[in-house]
Design a protein that fits this description.
Elements lengths: L8 E5 L12 E9 L1 H14 L17 E6 L4 E8 L5 E4 L28 E11 L5 E13 L2 E14 L5 E3 L7 H6 L9 H7 L7 E5 L7 E6 L1 E3 L3 E9 L12 E11 L2 E5 L6 E5 L6 E4 H11 L2 E3 L4 E5 L8 E6 L6 E5 L4 E3 L18 E4 L1 E4 L4 E3 L1 H4 L2 E6 L4 E7 L8 E3 L10 E3 L20 H6 L12 H4 L22 H6 L2 H4 L39 H22 L2 H7 L2 H8 L1 E8 L7 H9 L22 H6 L6 E11 L2 E11 L7 H10 L2 E7 L6 H12 L4 E6 L8 H11 L4 E3 L1 E4 L7 E4 L4 E6 L5 E5 L4 H21 L1 H8 L6 H13 L4 E5 L9 H10 L8 E5 L5 E5 L8 E10 L2 E10 L2 E2 L3 E4 L5 E3 L2 E6 L2 E5 L1 E2 L4 E5 L8 E3 L5 E2 L10 E7 L5 H14 L4 E4 L6 E5 L2 H15 L3 E3 ...
Parallel strand pairs: 4-9, 5-8, 13-29, 16-25, 17-24, 30-32, 30-33, 33-34, 34-40, 35-40, 62-63
Antiparallel strand pairs: 1-2, 2-11, 3-4, 3-7, 5-9, 6-7, 7-8, 10-11, 10-26, 12-28, 13-27, 14-15, 14-16, 14-20, 18-19, 19-23, 20-21, 22-23, 26-27, 31-32, 36-37, 37-38, 38-39, 41-42, 41-53, 43-44, 43-52, 44-51, 45-50, 46-47, 46-52, 48-49, 48-51, 54-56, 54-57, 54-58, 55-56, 59-64, 60-61, 61-63, ...
Helix pairs in contact: 3-10, 18-19, 24-25
Family: Belongs to the TRAFAC class translation factor GTPase superfamily. Classic translation factor GTPase family. EF-G/EF-2 subfamily.
Pathway: Protein biosynthesis; polypeptide chain elongation
GO cellular component, one term: mitochondrial matrix
């Protein structure tokens, strides 16, 4: 709505389009400038109409007009128009208008339009433009079409009004609902509606939908903006919430009316809830109105809180100007108790009343203080208004298609921008969530008198006190007119309210001129129907005013969206992004390595600790098992140190200095140390998901073992390049070349040693570098000094030449360049060999093998140099996201800071400071305080703190670049969630999560521990996707499931240590399965009568093994003739799924079954979905025994390692439990691989310790399901039936 006639501080749209139309948005930047000529002209004009005026009320800070510079016609004529969300017309004063040529004034200083000077001008409605405002001002003339240009964007054939007769010296740009167009009021017909500015912008492909967002910024700020077709997520704080706009009783959307449901006053002394008989209050969000107008009873309570006094001289409530420094604020609540709340500070509510020296209070409690106007005023009837005094504190999105408002707290003076366009016509407001419980907005609260405990705090924060608190408002109404000092007393002109308010109060809008309430809210006023229908169907006869077909607008929007996508795709290609990359950014990216340490149990930790010795993060090296009572740095959990295993993956970072061509270069390592035990395989899975490369650690004695094969499979699943490190070279029986051969034969990946050892076992000194043919040894404390010699020991020269030739031959098999040189019998240079190794390693064709001893501090530095040389940087790896707007089409992510942010939360941890979320940044950069969007929940979250992790220690940082790994606090999410900055509709595939294989019942010993137990279970499930919990429906026991006995044992122990909860656990339960082995036919009739409609269903068909997949089930229908309707067939399918969920033999899940329904019968009244669902379940259970129902048990691939002298004892143990698959005997130990039933392995660790004097170890990994022995099946079935009988007799 248009404000006061004076224009003291106009908001001028700067004219530069921030985002082009191809991006689906058009933005105008607002700037405020003084226009003293207009003040002077209005001053003289008002002096002729009223008492002498020395200072007049301005429309600057006090009146808040926002003006837009634009161009009209061909060629363009410059002018400045007021922006107004409450009207819909654009109108301009004619250069020949009387008001513009008035003698003694500067005329229309903001610009006029001369039709004769425009070649594209065309009159389309002679004499049809006629608009009048409630203060009596008006503008009349013609409707015309011409070019309308804003910020360099031209809107063709824009319909506008030409004010040939007007007493207003400037025009308006209306962007509200089209029903507010002047032609609609004149013709009383909605058929007269024409495309206004936002609709025309959609029609011409400049934006994608009829919506825009408004950021007015601080009262004292010089800039703000209006963004057509999009939102700017950097301009608001917290969540953007969608609330409904309410229509008139006739269902017409005429204004941006929402439900104000609460108002609170807050100050250092307390808070008050202000009440009104009018709640819920219909308020119009209107950028053209300076002040906010609320019901009188509510406004008076706000006045009393801040000491405002009603002045008859001003016709408004006034307040001391120094109250703008008050620390108090008002909280406006919308759409019910769960809706959004907006805080409005006092510095936004205290407004100047004059353009010069302010008047002062002559009497009363504020005597001698400067007079300002209060931003909350009273109004006597609905609808009420929230103008600029409120809107400056709110970021508002106006969605005219879905009839919704998006609202959030504004981010004052934000210098950043993150524009998100509406993707299509009718698309919801981006990044916004729907306010919960909007149905409660109609609830009428109890009206009570506030205690005004906040009042004193409002006053004291500016140096006042109780003596300055305003008197009770009823007494203030009779205050003397000499309240304000007479020598500066001026004429205060009331605000002009635009036609929209008049229309809302008219009979056509509401059926009553006063006190009416919108139908969507609690309607209590008496409504009288208008004598004539509102907006009658009379035709205006003006074809130019017909509404643009929605199909045209939709197709134009789609075309614009497609163009924007193509432009975005062009800007995001590797070539385009690389061209924009600075040399500093390119160098940073080339020096980043995201690596993991992948190792089987007892192969030895190496990378994290070793790297930190030389970077200063670790001062000593220790074994994981902690024989010295310390334990490894990366194993920070007490249980890890006690048990000598790694349970959780640990993230760390380090700077590694490497000499290249005589220059020391610094590489940045993000390193994740992963567990080696199979029970904690999920930690390896999520590490592999986000790593660019890995170091696969092998034991020099054992070589490739069972867990190594598992790690290899995980690396191949996520396409992770690896280098191999043969550790424990100082052990007896160490043979690195055996390990190299096993990598080639067992892991099926070409490998060759790039080093050979100098000495063996206890005599191990260092290595010979086969690429440069030089010896490398370690010296000094912890081997920190590296000695490089070009002299190779004589006894190793022949072996070195032989292994170097083997390396070149192996490279020739996987690299074309080396192959050509090999065929030409040329000897590659060291640089060519290193380049070939890097290409083949990154291409997943080869793994170079290095060797050393981490515990003895020997030859680890060359391995870290190899990480720099051979493993990829983030730019060398193809990371892919899924474009949800294109049916999850794969899209390559580029690790460049200049691109939109995409990251993956891959690990969660509970921390004393809250939830810690590990994030891999795939694209863009992440800054502290930045807002991100969860692609799964579409919720906006703020990143309050970013840290780099060194095990359980943290280092705060302000920004993380593309390609790196960090951890953040304060983000509620799940493991595997994708985060973006809102500009890309991307999601990322999550990690592979294996099924659990073991369960056990658990309950706290003390009932008082129930809350802590529940909290712990929720945390463990969030952190570990393989840890699952459910409550058994029959026994009502809490069942936890995991990857093995050790896995569950660790969590039970963590309950005791971390939450002080002692638990009772039942016998571990095996996750059995049930299946069938042959076909069985069935013809089952369900017929029950129990008074009233009964149950009737007949199903005919057969069940048989599923030949397509032994792990899944299949349902099929082959019913002909319509004997069973389709809706009942769907119920049959659900019944089959439910029957398979709980098998007939043991109550475990059925797998590998197929059901086919061939015929059936129904009853007219008794058949139902429930009947056919139940009949199918009963038919399946009846046919299951005839189909050879069988119990399946999980077989585990079990690997046992022990000293060789205990081989006989272990053979005796395993013969009782399963079948032996392979045995490998080394120099001092042997490894046995067997397939055993999980049921037989309970308590095996105790037997193994007894048989090997505590020197043996084992690990288990799920292999497959197989039929259980007949005697075991009988025992299990009998036990299950006995349990069922016991429950029936209870």
């Amino acid at each position: 709505m248009r404000g006061h006639t004076a224009v003291a501080l106009s908001a001028v749209l700067a004219g530069a389009v921030h985002a082009s139309a191809g991006n689906g948005v058009v933005q105008w930047d607002i700037q405020r400038t003084q226009r003293q000529q207009e003040f002077q002209r209005l001053n003289r004009r008002l002096r002729r109409r009223a008492d002498p005026v020395q200072e007049i009320i301005t429309n600057e800070k006090a009146r808040g007009g926002y003006f837009a510079t634009c161009r009209l016609g061909t060629p363009g004529q410059d002018m400045t128009l007021q922006l107004d969300t409450g009207s819909s017309d654009i109108w301009v004063p004619n250069s020949a208008a009387r008001v513009c040529a008035e003698v003694g004034t500067e005329g229309c200083v903001l610009g006029t339009f001369n039709p004769a000077d425009s070649s594209s001008f065309e009159v389309v409605g002679k004499g049809q433009f006629d608009i009048e405002y409630v203060d009596g001002s008006f503008s009349k003339g013609d409707y015309f079409t011409d070019v309308f240009e804003i910020g360099g964007v031209s809107v063709q054939n824009m319909t506008m009004g030409l004010g040939t007769q007007t007493d207003i010296a400037y025009g308006l740009v209306g962007v509200g609902y089209a029903v507010n167009e002047a032609i609609v009021g004149k013709t009383q017909s909605l058929d007269s509606v024409y495309p206004n500015l936002p609709v025309n912008m959609v029609d011409q492909g400049l934006i994608n939908t009829v919506a825009y967002s408004l950021w007015l910024n601080d009262l004292d700020a010089s800039s703000g903006n209006i963004l057509f077709g999009g939102i700017d997520t950097a301009k608001y704080e917290g969540e953007l919430t969608r609330i409904d706009i309410y229509p008139t009783q006739q269902g017409i959307y005429a204004a941006f009316m929402v439900a104000l449901t609460s108002l609170e006053a807050h100050s250092p002394s307390g808070e008050d809830t202000l009440t009104s008989q009018e709640f819920p209050i219909p308020v119009v969000l209107d950028s053209g109105t300076t002040l906010s107008y609320l019901p009188t009873d509510l406004a008076m309570q706000a006045w009393r809180e801040v000491g405002a006094i009603y002045s008859p001289e001003v016709g408004a409530a006034v307040i001391p100007c120094d109250m703008q420094n008050s620390k108090g604020y008002f909280s406006f609540g919308f759409a019910g108790p769960q809706g959004p709340r907006i805080r409005v500070r006092m510095d936004e509510l205290v407004l100047d009343v004059t353009s010069g020296q302010p008047p002062r209070f002559a009497t009363g409690p504020h005597r001698g203080r400067d007079v300002c106007q209060f931003g909350i005023q009273n109004f006597t009837s609905a609808p009420y208004l929230l103008g600029d005094s409120f809107l400056r504190s709110a970021y508002v999105v106006y969605d005219l298609v879905n009839n919704q408002i998006g609202i959030a707290a504004t981010d004052f003076n934000s210098t950043e921008s993150n524009i998100v366009p509406f993707p299509s016509m009718s698309a919801p407001i981006p990044s916004a969530t729907v306010a919960a419980g909007q149905s409660e907005a109609t609830r009428v609260p109890e009206v009570t008198e506030p205690a005004y405990v906040a009042s004193q705090g409002f006053m004291e924060s500016v140096g006042g006190g109780e003596e300055n608190v305003a008197p009770n408002m009823p007494a203030a109404w009779g205050i003397n007119q000499m309240l304000i000092t007479p020598f500066v007393r001026g004429l205060f002109v009331k605000m002009r309210v635009i036609r929209t308010v008049a229309a809302l109060n008219s009979s056509c809008a509401l059926g009553s001129r006063q006190g009416a309430r919108y139908a969507g809210l609690a309607y209590r006023a008496t409504v009288t129907s208008p004598s004539t229908p509102c907006y009658s169907a009379r035709l205006s006869g003006l074809r130019h005013f017909s509404r643009t077909p929605s199909s045209r607008a939709s197709s134009a929007a789609e075309a614009a969206l497609q163009q924007a996508k193509e432009l975005a795709a062009a800007n995001m290609t590797p070539e385009a992004a690389a061209a924009r990359m600075s040399p500093e950014e390119a160098k940073r990216l080339a020096r980043v390595r995201n690596i993991g340490i992948a190792v089987r149990v007892k192969s030895g930790r190496v990378g994290g600790t070793r790297a930190h010795i030389d970077s200063g993060k670790t001062t000593a090296i220790h074994e994981v098992r902690g024989r010295d009572g310390v334990g490894a740095k990366m194993d920070s959990m007490e249980l890890e140190r006690e048990r000598g295993i790694t349970i959780q993956s640990a993230a760390t970072f380090a700077d590694w200095k490497k000499v290249e061509d005589g220059v020391e270069e610094t590489y940045h390592f993000n390193l994740i140390d992963t567990p080696g035990h199979i029970d904690f395989t999920i930690e390896v899975e999520r590490a592999m998901r986000v790593l660019d490369g890995a170091v696969m650690v092998l034991c020099a004695v054992s070589g490739v073992q069972s867990q190594t094969i598992t790690v290899d499979r995980q690396m191949k699943r996520y396409n992770v390049p690896r280098i191999s490190f043969v550790n424990k070279m100082d052990r007896m029986g160490a043979n690195p070349f055996k390990a190299v051969e096993m990598i080639n034969s067992k892991l099926k990946i070409p490998a060759a040693a790039v080093q050979i050892p100098i000495g063996s076992e206890k005599e191990f000194e260092g290595v010979v570098d086969l690429i440069h043919m030089r010896a490398i040894r370690n010296d000094g404390q912890r081997g920190i000094n590296v000695k490089v010699s070009n002299t190779i020991p004589e006894n190793l020269k022949e072996l070195a030449e032989q292994k170097r030739q083997e390396l070149i031959e192996k490279l020739a098999d996987v690299d074309d360049e080396i192959a050509e040189m090999f065929l030409e019998e040329k000897t590659p240079t060291p640089e060519q060999i290193k380049a070939a190794i890097r290409r083949a390693t990154i291409g997943l064709k080869f793994t170079p093998v290095l060797m050393g001893s981490a515990l003895a501090d020997k030859s680890v530095q060359p391995m870290l140099d190899a990480v720099c040389d051979y493993l990829p940087n983030p730019g060398n790896v193809d990371n892919v996201a899924l474009d949800r707007s294109k049916k999850e089409e794969p899209v390559k992510l580029l690790p460049y800071n200049s691109l939109p942010f995409v990251g993956l939360a891959f690990k969660l941890e509970e921390n004393p400071y809250g939830q810690l979320t590990y994030i891999r940044v795939y694209q863009g950069s992440l800054k502290k305080g930045q807002y991100l969007f969860n692609a799964r929940t579409d919720k906006k979250v703020r990143i309050p703190r970013i840290v780099r992790m060194h095990s359980n220690e943290m280092e705060d940082v302000n920004e993380i670049g593309a390609g790196e790994i960090c951890a953040v606090f304060g983000v509620e999410c799940a493991s595997g969630d994708t985060f973006t900055d809102g500009r890309l509709p991307y999601g990322m595939s999550s990690m592979y999560v294996p099924d659990s294989v073991m369960s056990l019942s658990i309950k706290p010993k003390r009932s008082s521990d129930a809350d802590a137990f529940s909290k712990a279970m929720n945390r463990f499930m969030r952190e570990d996707p393989t840890f699952r919990l459910h409550v058994d429906e029959e026994s009502e026991e809490t069942i936890i499931s995991g990857m093995g006995e050790l896995h569950l044992d660790i969590y039970v122990e963590r309950l005791r240590r971390e939450y002080k909860v002692d638990c009772e656990t039942g016998k571990p339960r095996v996750a059995y399965r049930e299946t069938i082995s042959k076909r069985a036919d069935f013809d089952f009739l369900l017929k029950r009568q129990s008074g009233g409609p009964g149950d009737y269903a007949r199903v005919v068909g057969y069940i048989e093994p599923n030949t397509d997949s032994a792990d899944s089930n299949k349902f099929e229908t082959r019913v002909v003739g319509g004997n069973i309707p389709d809706k009942y067939l769907a119920a049959c399918g659900k019944g089959f799924e439910e029957a398979c969920g709980k098998g007939p033999l043991l109550g475990h899940r059925v797998i590998g079954a197929s059901m086919v329904i061939t015929d059936g019968a129904t009853h007219v009244t008794d058949s139902s979905d429930y009947a056919f669902n139940l009949a199918t379940q009963m038919a399946f259970r009846k046919a299951f025994p005839e189909a050879g129902g069988t119990v399946l048990e999980p077989l585990m691939k079990t690997t046992i390692t022990a000293p060789a002298e205990f081989q006989g004892n272990i053979l005796m143990l395993m013969n009782k439990r399963g079948s032996i698959v392979d045995t490998e005997v080394g120099a001092d130990e042997f490894t046995m691989i067997a397939e055993c039933s999980l049921n037989s392995m309970f308590g095996f660790s105790t037997h193994l310790r007894a048989a090997t004097q505590g020197k043996g170890e084992f690990s288990m990994e799920f292999s497959h399901y197989a039929a259980a022995p007949p005697h075991l099946q009988k025992e299990l079935v009998a036990k299950y039936e006995k349990e069922l009988d016991a429950k029936r007799t209870k």
